[in-house]
Amino acid sequence: MVIGGYALIAYGRIRTTQDIDIAIAASFPDIVRTHGLLKKSGYQLPSAPNREAPLFLATDLENQVEFEIWTEPDGVVFDAELLNRRIRIRPFGDDFEVFAIGPEDFIVNKLARKSKGVGDEQDAASVLKRQEGRLDNDYIMRRAKQAKVTGLLETLMQML
Amino acid sequence: MSQILTRFGGRYETTIDLIKELSMRSLVQVTSEKNGVGRPRHMIRTTPLGKQFIEQLDQLSDIRLQSNKNDIKKAVKQAEEVQRLVGLGVDPYIRFQEVNEIARNIASTPQTSRHP
Question: In angstroms, rounded to a whole number, what is the distance separating the alpha carbons of residues B27 and B47?
């Protein structure tokens, strides 16, 4: 499923992004297979899959698009509940549909980022604003607690 | 000391001053340990008060945002603008592709020299 800037547009503000963030729920052997398939398809992959790394990079040289493929996105627990909350988006027109992370999980993912910056907090704030009255409060608070970002989320909510 | 400097970087004098201050505030305890020949080694340990301080600092970092009010205000305005566009029937992804295309073109345009 798509996370990051491409998912943001469905729920929050529009901002430019030069890469596409994708989260995949896969076992390590499947991650290795995915990596191999991308390589075979002509993608440039600077590093080999690594159990310790939460993501790997892949570049589509033909279209000059960089992908961040997250196998362990910050604050995201790949479970049935999260997968059920995905939505389908068409970021590249009507012909191509992909899953995007749900809005509550999007916010938690942004706030839980280890290298979180002002932009991540602004992304989360924009989703909180645009989705006002539509978010599942119990769910987001539960996920925030799991990711240890309850305080951050509450502070952000107070600032809106 | 050398281990602290290797791990965290910084100047020797500044680090010494910092440790002195932490020690003065009872957050760390500095002891000397003689191990065979050579100069005694300075051991710096966190005191129970220091540990409590770190725990509370960690809790604080969970509620401390990096953004200020203006940053959040800006994001809220941008969200409202998208909401307005959606209300007008504009697909935000189409608007995004337009904006992103412009940004990509700007990024890939070689900068013109000021000194021809």
Answer: 5
